């Protein structure tokens, strides 16, 4: 076997995953997994989730199994990809500790994604240290597996930049070649971010504008019917707008029959096509995607012992790999006193 490239990615378990996650990363991960070209690691980042949820561990605990169910039901296959839990890999915490000495506080404060999150979360002066430093812990996640490729959303680029800096500083400082610089793999332009049901630029749990992979058919239908279209399109006969019309944005992404979508667009712009019609069609399109995912999810849900055993085995394997890297890192620094 040729040396496969190593791929590492993951999510914070702070809730269920939605179709924005599906389009932005999950679908891509399944495709990458199925190429057979990579050794894939997919991490549930419970420690990172705790950095701004220290007082609500139950939320993380409950979300962890939901995320695992979401992974399995979209087709991440434990035979092809290693799913594991961050907190079960002690080496990650030790690497974080060692990397902390290589990163300045001002550098952390400049990380644009962390900056945005800090203002969104209204921390004020009370930013948890763990939160500010989570990019260092993320560098530990990535380097522990010597990952070459990190498939993530666009907002994660600053984490990769910081990881590469840490890798270079580490290797220079300790004259080592242990750590590997990772590359990000980002969604194609225009496909990274799905707008919310309400027309907000981003689908997210906190904005309450998401369709979850686990939503049942009724919930899906209700949500689709509530979607933002064109506020000026009042009567069926009125000409409607496509731009900013969430129904058409979703149809562009999810519908296979592009020709039909183009016909609908023409008709809508011309006037004579009602919102209920396009929404019903979108509902069918989404149901076609989500039905099999939901069915699989329900099956796995009946068998949580199996799901936990997947996570346990994945974590055991991940532990071996990360411990080996930690050993090399300790040796590079000279933290090996006893024979
Ligand atoms: N920061 C990612 C998120 O917000 C989760 C994450 C933690 C991650 N460690 C990672 C992603 C390592 C890729 C690689 O969901």
UniProtKB/TrEMBL annotation:
Compartments where found: Cytoplasm
Cited function: Catalyzes the attachment of tryptophan to tRNA(Trp).
Pfam families reported in the protein's UniProt record: tRNA-synt_1b
Residues bound to ATP: 12-14, 20-21, 153-155, 194, 202-206
Principal subcellular localisation of the protein: cytoplasm
One Gene Ontology cellular component: cytosol
Transmembrane regions: none
Upper lineage: Bacteria, Bacillati, Bacillota, Bacilli, Lactobacillales
Catalytic reaction(s) noted: tRNA(Trp) + L-tryptophan + ATP = L-tryptophyl-tRNA(Trp) + AMP + diphosphate + H(+)
NCBIfam families: trpS
Biological processes, Gene Ontology terms: tryptophanyl-tRNA aminoacylation
Location of the motif 'KMSKS' region: 202-206
EC class name: ligase
Motif ('HIGH' region): 13-21
Assigned protein family: Belongs to the class-I aminoacyl-tRNA synthetase family.
Gene encoding the protein: trpS
Residues that, per the record, bind L-tryptophan: 141
Gene3D superfamilies tied to this protein: HUPs, Tyrosyl-Transfer RNA Synthetase
EC number: 6.1.1.2
Assembly and interaction partners: Homodimer.
MF annotations from Gene Ontology: ATP binding; tryptophan-tRNA ligase activity
Keywords: Aminoacyl-tRNA synthetase, ATP-binding, Cytoplasm, Ligase, Nucleotide-binding, Protein biosynthesis
Designated name of the protein: Tryptophan--tRNA ligase
InterPro entries: aa-tRNA-synth_I_CS (IPR001412), aa-tRNA-synth_Ic (IPR002305), Rossmann-like_a/b/a_fold (IPR014729), Trp-tRNA-ligase (IPR002306), Trp-tRNA-ligase_bac-type (IPR024109), Trp-tRNA_synthetase (IPR050203)
């Amino acid at each position: 076997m040729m040396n496969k490239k190593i791929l590492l990615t993951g999510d914070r378990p702070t809730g269920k995953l939605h179709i924005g996650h599906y389009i932005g990363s999950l679908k891509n991960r399944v495709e990458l997994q199925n190429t057979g070209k990579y050794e894939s690691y997919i991490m549930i980042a419970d420690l990172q989730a705790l950095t701004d949820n220290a007082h609500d561990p139950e939320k993380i605990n409950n979300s962890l199994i939901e995320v695992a169910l979401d992974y399995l039901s979209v087709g991440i296959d434990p035979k092809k990809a290693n799913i594991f839990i961050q907190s079960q890999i002690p080496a990650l915490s030790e690497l974080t500790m060692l990397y902390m000495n290589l990163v300045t506080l001002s550098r952390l404060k400049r990380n644009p994604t962390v900056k945005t999150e800090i203002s969104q979360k209204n921390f004020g002066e009370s930013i948890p240290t763990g939160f500010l430093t989570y990019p260092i812990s993320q560098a530990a996640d990535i380097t522990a597996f010597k990952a070459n490729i990190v498939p993530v959303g666009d907002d994660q680029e600053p984490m990769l930049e910081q990881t590469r800096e840490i890798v270079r500083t580490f290797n220079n400082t300790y004259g080592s070649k242990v750590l590997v610089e990772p590359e990000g793999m980002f969604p194609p332009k225009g496909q990274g971010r799905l707008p919310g049901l309400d027309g907000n630029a981003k689908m997210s749990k906190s904005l309450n504008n998401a369709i979850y992979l686990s939503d049942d058919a009724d919930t899906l239908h209700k949500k689709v019917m509530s979607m933002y279209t064109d506020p000026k399109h009042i009567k069926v006969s009125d000409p409607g707008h496509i731009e900013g019309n969430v129904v058409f944005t979703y149809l562009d992404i999810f519908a296979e029959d592009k020709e039909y979508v183009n016909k609908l667009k023409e008709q809508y712009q011309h006037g004579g096509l009602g919102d209920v019609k396009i929404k019903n069609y979108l509902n069918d399109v989404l149901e076609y995607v989500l039905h099999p995912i939901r069915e699989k999810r329900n099956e796995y849900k009946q068998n949580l012992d199996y799901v936990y055993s997947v996570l346990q085995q994945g974590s055991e394997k991940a532990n071996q790999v990360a411990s080996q890297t930690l050993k090399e890192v300790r040796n590079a620094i000279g933290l090996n006193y006893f024979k």
